[in-house]
Specification:
This protein has eight helices and 13 strands. The protein is α/β, with parallel strands linked by helices. It folds into two domains: about 130 residues, Rossmann fold (3-Layer(aba) Sandwich), CATH 3.40.50.2300; about 90 residues, Orthogonal Bundle (Arc Repressor Mutant, subunit A). The longest helix has 18 residues.
Length: about 240
């Protein structure tokens, strides 16, 4: 269960802890900064869901003792194409453990003894670096990672073709606006062909099929194009 601990946020930190090996010092540091701090169980599905819905800017794995299972967690998160940077922080540990975690997917590793200001500075640096190299769009339950060409809805990744991704990404990026069929055709099909407008309709129909219960978020604006609702509704 995700629990919001502190809400004056400039950076949203997703802190992974285990009851047996939590690092209270890390929690105290983030609770004392202008951050939104979330705690969550160490399940890959929960972490991916929280990151995909835009609820965090960075994942922090905090342990009093770093174990092989923590390194495996880094690896599993990267295999699931986690879009957020991973910061590992622990009590005293060996260099080989830090190296293994970095090779498995952690973006940085800090082990005690360290200064709280250094911990915060490194986290902020990772977030700045991640934001500079990627662009994401969020609208309601929809999240788009343009760099990795991924779309998720309510934390569930949606498998799309290249054109389907381009069309849905355009709607999410302009959520609440009416996007004409011509604009969508130009966005997803740069080389315009006869019947491109009909092709847009076909692709949108396929996207709706893949969205399942969330299909109602895509609204048909008759004679013009489509609009992505920020809340669900029936398709026209």
């Amino acid at each position: 269960m995700v629990r919001l601990l502190y809400v004056r946020a400039s950076v949203r930190v997703l802190l992974l802890e285990t009851e047996a090996r939590a690092l209270p010092f890390a929690r105290a540091v983030f609770e004392g900064t202008a951050s939104a701090l979330l705690t969550i169980e160490d399940t890959v599905a929960e972490v991916i869901a929280a990151s995909a819905t835009g609820r965090a800017d960075i994942v922090v794995i905090a342990r009093d003792t770093w174990c092989e299972e923590d390194t495996v967690l880094c690896l599993l998160l990267r295999e699931e194409r986690l879009a957020l940077p991973i910061f590992a922080v622990s009590g005293p540990c060996k260099a080989r453990q830090r190296v293994a975690a970095l090779r498995a997917g952690a973006d940085d590793f800090l082990s005690m003894p360290f200064d709280s200001e250094e911990l915060v500075a490194r986290v902020l640096a990772l977030v700045r670096r991640a934001l500079s190299r990627s662009r994401c769009a969020h609208a309601g339950l929809f999240a788009v990672d343009f760099t990795r060409r991924l779309v998720s809805v309510d934390g569930r990744r949606v498998s799309l073709t290249l054109r389907e991704f381009d069309l849905l990404a355009a709607l999410v990026d302009r959520a609440g606006e009416v996007v004409t069929r011509r604009e969508l055709a130009e966005y997803a099909m740069p080389v315009a062909t006869k019947g491109a407008s009909n092709s847009v309709d076909v692709h949108v129909s396929r996207i709706r099929d893949k969205l399942g219960i969330h299909a109602g978020y895509i609204e048909t604006v008759r004679g013009i194009g489509y609009r992505l609702r920020r809340s669900g509704g029936d398709t026209a």
